[in-house]
Amino acid sequence: MQEVTPKWDNTWAIEDLSSLTMHEKRQRESTVEPEHHEVFNRLLEDPVIQRFLAWDKKLRVSDKYLLSMVIAYFSRAGLFSWQYQRIHFFLALYLASDMEEDNQAPKQAIFFFLYGKSHFHRPMFHKLRFQFIRSMYWNIRVSREECEEIQAYDPEHWVWGRDRALIA
């Protein structure tokens, strides 16, 4: 029996575009539920989180896009709404900053706000961050469109006014 070997010469050369098929981009369904917005709003009432948001005057760590990513992460983490605590807000915000910002300073600002100059709690924070990421099955990319969809749920919410572009 003789083996037939396929001829693979110029397999990537395309002479005619009519052989290509185009697929429409499927509309992504949001996994963000109203309860995730409610959890976020509940956490915004926390005095420590309020102090943090007031402290970040230049919105380096808490602009509207990073905050909308917090809601996206809450929707992906799979916790019950009553399980979310202050630490989850800061874990999600740190992760959002990690994903979107090239500069390390904003993330360090979160640590400075939470722990001052002490480095004692940072290893535990990173361990919790890793667990949080795992709970989302490593799905940590949030598109700008998803952020805008999250903001559109309640467009008049005061937190969506935290726009870096508007700061002089």
From TrEMBL:
A Pfam short name: Spy1
Listed GO MF terms: protein kinase binding
InterPro entries hit by this protein: Speedy, Speedy_E
Family stated for the protein in its record: Belongs to the Speedy/Ringo family.
Protein name: Speedy protein E4-like
Species for this entry: Orycteropus afer afer
Gene name linked to the record: LOC103208555
